[in-house]
Each structure stands twice: as structure tokens, then as C-alpha cells.
Amino acid sequence: MKVEKEGMSRRHRVDLFTPIEKSIYDLQGEVEKMGADVRLTDALNLLIQARWKIADFVEEYPQQSQPKPDTSQVDDITKLYRL
User: Strand, coil or helix: what is 3?
Assistant: First the structure.
């Protein structure tokens, strides 16, 4: 686990989550709202494990984990202005 200057790792800071980490984090909250059941606890634990696995990858390969920009609109605009 990589620790930032402030003493807290990136994986513990919601403001630094990748979009997929944020989605899983939000889903964890939805599962918690469903109530108490051992199956829900198991599901929650699996979601936490998934988010941590993704965090491991992001911290090891930060460049590969960045979302690719959508350039499709740029390509369309470029085609319009070609003579």
C-alpha cells in the first residue's frame, strides 16, 4: 500500500478514487442499506475485496488505470472541417 505525503493512502481517500472504485464504494453503501443478513455481509466483504484489488492495480500501474478520454466527438468535428 502506497502512503501519500499527508500520511493517508490514496485508497482511503474517496476524492482520489478512480471511477470504478467510486462505483464500488457507492454500491457498498447500497448493500448496507438493505439490512442485516449474513449473505449481505458476505457480498459486502466481496465488494471491499474487489475495491482493494483495483486499488492495488491503480497504485502499481497508475498510467494504465487512468480512463481514456473520449475523442469520438473531436474526430467527428475534424471530419466536418476537412476540405
Answer: strand
Which residues are CB-neighbours of 47 under 8 A, at least 6 positions away?
Answer: 24, 27, 28, 31
- Rounded to whole angstroms, the Cα distance separating 11 from 3 reads 9
Separation between Cα atoms, residue 50 and residue 61, nearest integer Å: 16
One pLDDT digit (tens) per residue for the chain, 83 residues: 665 656 788 899 999 999 999 999 999 999 999 999 999 999 999 999 999 999 999 999 887 766 665 656 655 555 555 54
Q: Taking CA 52 as the corner, what is the angle to CA 51 and CA 55, rounded to the nearest 5 degrees?
A: 90
pTM greater than 0.90:
no
